[in-house]
TrEMBL record:
InterPro entries according to UniProt: Glyco_trans_1, Glyco_trans_4-like_N, GlycosylTfrase_MSMEG0565, Glycosyltransferase_grp1
Transmembrane segments: none
CDD domains named among the record's database cross-references: GT4_PimA-like
Native source organism of the sequence: Paraburkholderia azotifigens
Domain (Glycosyltransferase subfamily 4-like N-terminal): residue spans on this chain: 19-179
Keyword Transferase: yes
Pfam families from the UniProt entry: Glyco_transf_4 (PF13439), Glycos_transf_1 (PF00534)
Keyword annotations: Transferase
GO molecular function, one term: glycosyltransferase activity
Protein name per UniProt: MSMEG_0565 family glycosyltransferase
Ranges for domain Glycosyl transferase family: 196-346
């Protein structure tokens, strides 16, 4: 440790684009810095693209070339880039090395195998299912070789223990309530007009078109909703994924064509755009079949928007009927019914008491405090190993 209670922390993420894990990394970095820690963020960057959001922390961009649609090559290129960036910066300059995903986890696992680092921390947000054995092995190695494993929800902490024998610790996400507060400094009108967001009502889903996000089922539910709300618009925002969702996206777009201009797919959005779209929405749907935590639910509630959420873990671990409208993710009729409930008097959600209480439980300050305690334990483990 570098002296006193200050740790030199390197956080690693897989991209500079607006994805949940990247947002988590940047928010955690800021909160750790505000808690007095020395934080550097490492991220692969194609063509020198900057981080999608400015950070008060130092950011090291690891240059990578475009991968041309080959997912395995893309992952390998990013692993190599992060390894090279850390070696160039100097591994001795950091007390804690913390990977937020499988790509950066493998970069650190390889450096550990080479004897260049002692070990690393890995946060598991969620795990995917891959047909490609190389991708599956990379995903396994990233957490299996880590010295300390964290998860963003109790559901995934239990799953890591029960399915993989990993003794993980839960460190929840936070939410920046002020970022989504209605008294914002920029005007939403022009942004929404440019994006074509004008429905009455607007149903928003964030995260792009993915099977994991259950976007096709949401589309079917929206078609049901249109029967009672003919002016409704479904807006699918975001989608800066590194994985291949082309087949699923083609099926979605073919079905959406039947609904004409009632469906808008924005693609990746910058910070101001996502806030503007969130505030222009009437309900935010997160009907995923698999999530690590589901940060968008808290962001939507911070913006004062009712949320329709899958009645599955991890959501059932921190939400209840006072703060959301539940839906069965495999049933389009159930999702449509939940959307209608959310649009009627905001679903009866208790924005006066229950929502503020929920948001107060999930602060990045508290997340940083928990991380710092676990980092200290991680370093004590190394110190004890050296003394044996």
């Amino acid at each position: 440790m570098s002296g006193g209670t200050t740790m030199r922390i390197a956080l690693f993420t897989h991209s500079v684009n607006p994805r949940g894990g990247v947002v988590h990394t940047l928010e955690l970095a800021r909160a750790l810095r505000e808690a007095g820690q020395d934080v550097t963020v490492f991220a692969p960057s194609v063509g020198g693209a900057p981080m999608f959001r400015a950070s008060p922390c130092r950011v090291v961009l690891a240059p990578v070339a475009a991968h041309g649609g080959d997912t395995v090559k893309m992952v390998q290129t990013r692993i190599d880039a992060l390894k090279a960036a850390l070696l160039e910066e100097g591994v001795s300059g950091f007390d804690v090395l913390h990977a937020q995903d499988s790509i950066s986890g493998n970069a650190l696992a390889e450096l550990r195998e080479m004897g260049r680092i002692r070990g690393y921390v890995r946060t598991v947000h969620h795990l995917d299912t891959f047909d490609n054995p190389c991708l599956s092995e990379w995903q396994r190695r990233a957490f299996a070789d880590a010295d300390t494993v964290l998860c963003v929800s109790d559901a995934w902490t239990k799953r890591m223990r029960n399915e993989y024998g990993i003794a993980a610790s839960t460190v929840n996400n936070g939410v920046d309530v002020e970022r989504f507060h209605s008294a914002c400094e920029f005007d939403d009108t022009d942004i929404c007009a440019k994006l074509g967001v004008s429905g009455k009502p607007v149903v928003l889903a964030v995260g792009g078109i993915e099977e994991r996000k259950n976007t096709l089922q949401l589309l079917e539910a929206f078609a049901w909703l249109k029967q009672t709300h003919p002016g409704a618009q479904l807006v699918i925002a975001g989608g800066a994924s590194l994985l291949d969702h082309d087949g699923y996206t083609r099926r979605f777009m073919a079905r959406a064509a039947a609904l004409g201009q009632a469906v808008t797919v924005t693609g990746p959005l910058d910070d101001k755009e996502i806030i503007a779209v969130m505030r222009a929405s009437d309900v935010v749907a997160m009907v995923s079949v698999r999530e690590g935590f589901g940060l968008v639910t808290l962001e939507a509630l911070a913006a004062g928007k009712p949320v329709v959420v899958s009645r599955i873990e991890p959501f059932t671990g921190y939400l209840d009927e006072r703060v959301c409208c539940w839906a069965e993710p495999g049933d389009a009729a159930s999702i449509a019914d939940a959307l209608r409930r959310a649009l009627h008097e905001r679903g009866g959600i208790d924005f006066e008491h229950a929502v503020p209480e929920l948001l107060a439980r999930f602060s990045w300050r508290e997340s940083a405090r928990r991380h710092i305690a676990l980092y200290a334990s991680h370093l004590r483990h190394f110190a004890q190993a050296l003394s044996v």
